[in-house]
Amino acid sequence: MFKRLKTPLILLLAALAVYQTGQLWFVHLTNRNLGVFFRAMFESPAPDGYVELTRPMRVVARDENQRTRTQYGVTCQAAEEAFGQVLRRGVFTGVVARQYASDNLQDTAFVLYEYAVMMRAEIFALAFGTRGNTRLLDDEVERFDAVAVTAGSVIFLGEEYAWTYALPEAIILPEVQMTPSRNFVSVPYNPYARSGEVRLDTVNAQIAHFFDNPATRSPRFMDNIITISNVNTVVQLLPGNRHVLYYRCFRPFRRDGVPDFLMDFSAALAFVNADPNVTNDFYLAGYEARGRTHIFSFNLLVSHGNASFPLEAPEIGWGPSDAPLFYPIEVTVERGHVTRYRKLAYTFHAEVG
């Protein structure tokens, strides 16, 4: 009996020895969790960004009775069914001036996806079609910032031109419920404060997730700025027109290869999603390519009842006057690595005035 158990016992003891060594090195000596270490080794560094990138900034719907509704933070199942049909079996019917196509929509029921940035055809095809689908590119549809869906067609609206496809099967557009009035005010809440007061200890308690090794961070308060840092990461809470949280990372990484927009967007999205103090829904409101980096701006949505509305920024923006934020979240990414993150420190909820 003992001989049969000897080998399994030896294997079990060996496994425990490996585990204890790992705990010693990664937890007790470096203050890192072993599970986090292995997840970092085997997981993708950022989620697939196709779906979120093709999520519209807003959806405008009009029905046969000329009722119109604009919604933020939503998608439309009927429209996305039409997108799939077009990429599989749509029939290209021609290209016209954008203004002409827009004018022709005025007396028609439609659903309109509007994007804050120019959407690339290949990304749209990957989100709603199959890998390698070149139907749009074959018809010289490259970039567009809106897509209109009628019962029998899909129209891609570019800067100057519009491309129309006939649907192989008619779709049923949703009946429109009128947009509720915006009869509320957006009330801010600062998660970095305690009893309304922002202090070094309250901020320090909320920003550990920004550091690979939180035990190495050094907090200090100087010139009315809270700064928490280690050798390669700096997090600051800046005063001014409401507080702005400012993250910078100086960790070295390889800078070879060509900057990739989708990889950078996925990294930005993952970074914002990992911030536990971003509790409002948000959407991509703009981006800028600057040298080797992409800068993504996100706006917050404030929900009231069954509707959501975009947060309205003051004309002077938020934060310090010499570097204001005009959207509440800004992420700078270089080759898949977030190097700078600025955000309004507040979250928002609706309150009827």
Describe this structure in words.
By secondary structure, this protein is of the alpha+beta class. It has helices at residues 2-29, 34-42, 50-53, 77-89, 98-104, 121-128, 135-138, 200-204, 261-273, and strands at residues 58-62, 68-72, 91-97, 110-120, 143-149, 153-157, 161-166, 185-189, 193-194, 197-198, 218-222, 225-229, 233-238, 244-249, 282-290, 293-304, 307-310, 329-334, 337-344, 347-351. The protein is built from nine helices and 20 strands. The strands form four sheets. Strands 11, 12, 13, 14, 15, 16, 17, 18 and 19 form a nine-stranded antiparallel β-sheet that branches. A hairpin with a 2-residue loop joins β9 (193-194) and β10. The radius of gyration is 25 Å and the shape is globular.
Q: Roughly what is the average pLDDT, rounded to an integer?
A: 85
> Total strand count, please?
20
Silhouette: globular
Strand content: 25-35%
* Cα-based radius of gyration, to the nearest Å: 25 Å
Extract low-pLDDT stretches.
21-47
The SSE string, one letter per element, is HHHEEHEHEHHEEEEEEHEEEEHEEEEEE
Helicity level: 25-40%
Strand pairing plus helix content: what structural class? alpha+beta
User: Span from first to last CA?
Assistant: 78 Å
Number of helices: 9
Q: What does the largest sheet look like?
A: 9 strands, antiparallel
Task: Throw out a few tags for this protein.
globular, alpha+beta, 353 residues, 9 helices, 9-stranded antiparallel β-sheet, 26% helix, 7-stranded antiparallel β-sheet
